[in-house]
Amino acid sequence: MPRIKVRQHVNPLSIIYQQPLIPPDWSVVYPNLSAPIHLDIGCAGGRFLHQLAQQNREWNYLGIEIRESLVVYANQKRDEVELSNLHYVFGNINTSLATLLASLPSGKLQRISIQYPDPCFKTRHAKRRVVQPELVNDIASYLPNGGEVFLQSDLEWVAQEMCDRFNENLAFRRTQTDWLDPNPLGIPTEREVATLNKGLPVHRAVYQLKVER
């Protein structure tokens, strides 16, 4: 998929991103509503999900992204190859994640991925970071028992901070104490490829919603 030039960072707390998301009619979006769903939070241009959706037609794939131009682009690329198990939505997870999760077919959300989120380096911008306790609580409320959350970043402190937020929530257990290698999903993001080509490590973890809570 070709690259599209777009602003790399936005402030999710800005007033322009506070409009709540209106979920689509999923029966129109996905022909097979009985398939499990993988949600990618912060999907950017959608290359990762695009490849997964082509590789595994037995799953439905959904990406949410705060930069609307990337969502338009990703859906256009999807349409070019007629992928009926893939969809992207424009939205701010700070205001729309619970609404989005609640709208999905009951029990079908099986996996969530959060990859290379904006680190928001400055301490005063910490509330802009994607993985907040509220986000983890929302995921715990809607992910079914045994559902998984896949986290990764090329910055160890970012990966560790995401893990800390999930460790704090008793609904989740980490499947492995060490960083995972290789990528258990088998499809790398563009950022992941660039990082590995430089010989640098990627820090990955998988959390599972406990079967008994």
Distance between the termini: 42 Å
Name the CATH superfamily assignment. Answer: Vaccinia Virus protein VP39
Task: Work out the strand percent.
Answer: 15-25%
Return the domain count. 1
> Over all CA atoms, what is the radius of gyration?
16 Å
Please provide a written account of the structure.
31% of the residues lie in helices and 18% in strands. The chain has 213 residues and is of the alpha/beta class. The chain has a single domain, classed as Rossmann fold (3-Layer(aba) Sandwich). The protein has a 7-stranded mixed β-sheet with strand order 3-2-1-4-5-7-6, with helices on both faces. It is globular. It starts with 25 loop residues before the first helix and ends with a strand.
Summarize the structure.
The chain is of the alpha/beta class. It is 31% helix and 18% strand. Strand 1, helix 2 (47-55) and strand 2 (60-65) form a beta-alpha-beta unit.
Please tag this protein with its features:
single chain, alpha/beta, Rossmann fold, seven-stranded mixed sheet, 213 residues
Topology:
Layout: H1 26-29, E1 37-41, H2 47-55, E2 60-65, H3 68-80, E3 86-90, H4 93-103, E4 109-115, H5 133-142, E5 148-153, H6 156-167, E6 172-174, H7 190-197, E7 203-209
Parallel strand pairs: 1-2, 1-4, 2-3, 4-5
Antiparallel strand pairs: 5-7, 6-7
Helix pairs in contact: 4-5
